[in-house]
Structure formats: structure tokens, C-alpha cells
Amino acid sequence: MLHKILLRALALGLTQLTLMVVLATGARAAAREKVLYAFSGGADGGGPLAGLISDKNGNLYGTTSTGGANGAGTVFELSPTEGGGWTETVLYAFTGGSDGGYPAGGVIFDAEGDLYGTTADGGANGDGTVFELSPTDGGGWTETVLHSFNGDDGLSPSAGLVFDGAGNLYGTTFSGGKPLDLGVVFELSPTAKGKWKEKVLLELGKHPDGGGPMGALVFDGAGNLYGTASGGYQVVGSVFELTPLANGKWKETVLYGFKGKGDGGRPLGSVVLDAEGNVYGTTSEGGRITEQYPCAFGCGTVFELMPRAQGKWKEAVLYKFEGGEDGDGPVAGLVFDAANNLYGTTEMGGGTGCQFQFGCGTVFELTPSVGGKWKEIVLHRFKNTKGGQQPMAGLILDSAGNLYGTGSGAGAGGGGVVFEITP
User: Fold this and answer.
1) pTM value?
2) How many CB atoms lie within 10 A of CB 235?
């Protein structure tokens, strides 16, 4: 029902990707989970696949991939109340028609408080959209479709967007583009007439970059874009960089092509950069490979890419998931805290106590230690169905060090949850 995106994932051979979800844990359980909101899967939304953003007042914003008044997903706001609870407001319910439907990516703010995001379906051609939500004087929100994809210029955007300093939007589509139908990187620029013009910066699928990008793009301080490709023909994924040129075009450089072995394979989330320009991310496969499921293709890794002389990059695997208590299948990106610790989620794993044989997912922390090693700590294992399951998105941190994220399934209402992890 929902996703063209899942069907295309299967076409690329990403069967381990989204069909099952499990998170894992490590040696220490040092955090507490609080469910801020449990979706019913009805008018309030269901199946949140993307992460959250917050405003200056501490309100949280996100999307659900299904549910809403029309069953085609929502954009929602969660607001804290005086009694310590949270109130959900559906800002917009998609119809699945010309306005778009089934958002799989999150939303971002502009300076005026407008929200921007993507839908994997719907639009004028049924191939997905880029949309804007603007607050109105009466307290509601108005949706404007900025672009409807037509297949040749992209199809089924599955990730959120990023702004540059000039107000242009950048994103990816999971498929579409010519000639290989393996996704594009696009730019949307506002015009004088209030319209937005799309430009395809990169058509993925050529060896060795692969295709099927599912993570959002990231800018560095010099205006270069970084992203991941999940796979493709005889390729198990890559991390790529796009550099703007003086003639208005962009140059692609594949920083690393994964082999699907100990180095990892099929990166599905965004990357994050540190102050030195090193690139960090996760792979959903590779790493520890066994003859038995769930790690027949590897249980996934956390990796670092470090720039070297002559434009070369070196990969280091910071952690290989074991597929049990420590987690399995990280499908989202990472976030740093002020002390340079990394936090993320795994889609599967977490040990026993869950109705899924291989676990319901985890929240983990990676801490740098002496000698360049990293230690994993499982902060939370998703087991109780009321606590949500199957986190498929990354996390955000508040100033107190609390983590916020979404679980795509279960919860008291059965439609997934928004959760807080308190150290």
C-alpha cells in the first residue's frame, strides 16, 4: 500500500532493508525510555519512518507515512504541556492525490517558520512531490506543492531536504532519472514568479556510485554535498561527494565504494561530518557475516571515512554489530554530542523479550576510547510493545542530552511512537 519505495527496494535486492526491523544492545542499560506519543494509525497518523526536528519552544515536528484523515500520511507537531505530557496536532493530512502522499522523509524549517518535505507518492504524475507548509493567521497550515516528479527527473523521494545559504533546496529520489532509473540528486530554486525550478545535479547508477539513495544530503562548510547510495547493479553502496563548479555544474566523487564484507554494505542513512572533515555513517549490511540469519549478509556497521592525500579517502570500521543484544541493521544516520560521542538506532536486534525472533531494535551510543577504538553501549532495547518498535530514523539531542526519535511500529495505539531517551 504505502510504498512504491519498498517495492523498488526489493527490486534492488534490499530485502533485509525494511521487511524486518530489529535493534540491539550492549553491555550496559543506562537510560530510560518515555513514550511522548503513541499513534493510533488512524486520523492522528501511523508508521513514522523519519526523524524529528524541534523549534525554539521545544515543540517537535515530523511525518507519518500512513494514517491521517485520508490514510496517506501526515505532518504533525508535538507540544509539551504543563503537566509533563505532550499534545499532538496534525498540521496536514495528505490525500495521496495531487498534493502528495505517504511521506517517508522528515521536514525542515526555513527562517520564516515554513516547513518543507517530500512525499514518496502522489503529485501531478503520481511519482512524488516536494511540498511546503505555511502557517496561516487562523492557526492552520496551507500546503503548496513546489515540484511534482515525473520519473525522468526523479521518482519516489524517500528522504528529507536541506537548504543552502541562498534558499535553494537539495534532495534525492530513490529511483527515476535517465537512463538507469536508480535515483537522482536534485536542486530546487525559487524563481521571481514564486515558482520553483528543478535541476537534476546527478543521475545515479553508474559504477561505482550505485543507486537507490535513501538518506538526506549534508553540506560541509565549503558548500560540498555528501550523500549515500544504497546499492545497484553489482554494487553494494557508496558514499559520494558533489562539488559545485564555476559553470554551474556539479562534480561527483565517490569517496568509498562498499564491498559488502567486513567493510560494510548498503548504507541507507545520511552521513555526519566532524570538525576535521571526517565522514561518519552506518551500513545496514556487512561487517560481521555468519552463515546464519540474521547476519548472513552482515549485521551492519558504523564507519568513518578520513580524507588522505591526493583526494583519497580511507575507511575505518568503528563497530560491527553482532546481531544479538547489541543490535542488527542500522538503517539511519548518526548524531554527535558535545563530547564527540555518536548516537544511533538499529532496525533489528536487542535480544529476547520481543515478539520478533531477532529483536525489535535498539538505541546505541559509541564512545571513542584510547587507541582509536570505539566502545558500544546499548542505551535502550525495544521490547515492550507499548514502548514502540523498529526505529528506522536517526535521533536528535536537546541541550540536556536527552535523545528523541520515532519507532515505526507498535506502541499503545499500534501505529508507532515518538520516544525520548533520558540518560
Assistant:
1) 0.92
2) 27
Distance (Å, whole) CA 235 – CA 257: 8
Grid coordinates of 300: 551492519
What distance in Å separates the CA atoms of residue 288 and residue 298, rounded to the nearest whole number?
5
Q: Give the class (CATH, top level) of 21-422.
A: mainly beta
Q: For 395-407, b where at least 16 C-beta lie within 10 A, e where not — what string?
A: bbbeeeebbbbbb
Distance of alpha carbon 331 from alpha carbon 291, whole angstroms:
22
Residues in the chain: 423
At 227, the pLDDT band (50, 70, 90 cuts) reads very high
Site of grid cell 526489493? 10
* DSSP-assigned states of every residue in 181-215: -B-EEEEEEE-TTS-EEEEEEEE--STTT-B---S
Q: How confident is the model at residue 30 (pLDDT cuts 50, 70, 90)?
A: low
Residue 302 in contact with residue 319, Cβ under 8 Å? yes
Q: Which residues pair with 38 in a beta bridge?
A: 417
Smallest CA-to-CA distance from 106 within 154, 65, 156 is with 65
8 Å CB contact between 316 and 306: yes
Tell me, what's the pLDDT at 8?
37
Burial code (b: 16+ CB inside 10 Å, e: under 16) for 344-361 equals bbbbbbbbeebebebbbb
Q: Rounded to whole angstroms, how far apart are CA atoms 404 and 124?
A: 34
Looking only at the bridges linking them, the beta strands covering 53-54 and 374-381 are: unpaired
pLDDT tens digits for range 69-85: 999 999 999 999 998 89
**SS3 at position 364:** strand
Cell of 262: 567486513
| Rounded Cα gap, residues 196 and 134, in angstroms | 16
**Where do the domains of the chain lie?**
21-422
Please give the Cα distance from 249 to 70 (Å, whole number): 40
How many alpha carbons lie under 13 Å from residue 416 in its C-beta half-sphere?
Answer: 28
Lowest mean pLDDT among 114-123, 212-221, 356-365, 397-406: 356-365
Integer Rg of the chain from CA: 20
Bond into 179 cis (ω within 30)? yes
Query: How far is it, in rounded angstroms, from Cα 184 to Cα 194?
Result: 24
Residue position matching grid coordinates 544492545: 25
Q: What are phi and psi of 15, to 5 degrees?
A: -70, -30
